[in-house]
Specification:
Elements: H1 2-11, H2 16-39, H3 49-61, H4 70-79
Helix pairs in contact: 1-2, 2-4
Length: 87
């Protein structure tokens, strides 16, 4: 991502405002998808002893459940929502 910002201004006649606007437009789908994932993460932050215990139990059984790959596939889908140009 840093490389994208470093190289792109040259493609915009050195105008950093246009380069940053282009960067924003390219990265917005990833940011939106990542923020949407974060909205559902409240269950990861236990605020009671019971929730702490319950979340620990879930993590223990997760590898044996049909939805075990969800923890990989969902964030991967968000990460793949952006296509970076090859410079």
């Amino acid at each position: 991502m840093v490389q994208l910002l470093r190289i792109n201004p040259n493609g915009f006649g050195g105008d950093y405002r246009l380069a940053f606007t282009n960067y924003e437009n390219q990265m917005r789908p990833l940011v939106n998808a990542s923020q949407k994932l974060g909205e559902g993460a409240q269950w990861l932050l236990p605020n009671t002893k019971f929730r702490f215990w319950f979340i620990n139990q879930i993590w223990k059984i997760l590898p044996y459940t049909p939805w075990k790959n969800m923890m990989i596939k969902v964030p991967l889908k968000a990460a793949n929502s952006v296509t970076l140009k090859d410079y």
